[in-house]
Amino acid sequence: MEKNIETSTAYFASGCFWGTEYHFMKQKGVISTAVGFMGGSEEYPTYPEVKTGTTGHLETVEVVYNPVEVSYGDLVKLFFETHDFTQTDGQGPDIGSQYLSAIFYLSEEQLLISQKYIAILQAKGYDIATSLRSAGHFWLAEDYHQQYYEHKGTTPYCHIYRKIF
């Protein structure tokens, strides 16, 4: 008989959601990932609408994880270690408001943990462009965007892992 696993959810935006999702999919303790949109005012946004940069949404990854196997803090560290959190106009060659760096927090605890890691990065001399935003509704992106690199059999060009913490 399988035990019920208590899960937690986190939301991260760090440029093109394909690359962001790629790294979270490989993290031990992550149960599932999905790509979509958060932060805008329009309901049911589509990729063609969001990519114009006019909806206010950011390309976002939903991460469902087992907090016994991986902590929220570990996910925040992975988030920072897989993109340029100092870039203010997008991510890599992807320029526009839909590609900004943000953590969408679901609780005061997630906010405090995120603030802790931002403070650590600032103490290391980094100028942080990542915004912290209260999570709103997560709108799932079209099917062809889900687990994109897994299906394509390639790796991201904008999201390269580099150890910082």
Account of the 3D structure:
27% of the residues lie in helices and 24% in strands. Helix 3 (72-81) packs across helix 4. It has one domain (8-152): Peptide methionine sulphoxide reductase MsrA (Peptide Methionine Sulfoxide Reductase, Chain A), CATH 3.30.1060. The protein is an alpha+beta fold and 165 residues long. The strands form two sheets. It has a six-stranded mixed beta sheet with strand order 7-6-1-3-2-8, with helices on one face. A two-stranded antiparallel ribbon has the order 4-5.
Provide the fold topology.
Blueprint (H helix, E strand, L loop, with lengths): L7 E7 L2 H9 L4 E9 L8 H4 L7 E8 L6 H10 L8 E2 L2 E2 L5 E5 L2 H16 L7 E4 L4 E2 L7 H5 L13
For the largest beta-sheet, the strand count, sense and barrel status come to: 6 strands, mixed
Strand order of the largest sheet: 7-6-1-3-2-8
H/E topology pattern = EHEHEHEEEHEEH
The helix-and-strand class reads alpha+beta
Q: Counting H and I runs of at least 4 residues, what is the number of helices? A: 5
Distance between the termini: 39 Å
The total beta strand count reads 8
Indicate the proportion of strand residues. 15-25%
* Low-pLDDT segments, ≥5 res: none
Tell me what the CATH architecture is: 2-Layer Sandwich
Return the average pLDDT rounded to an integer: 93
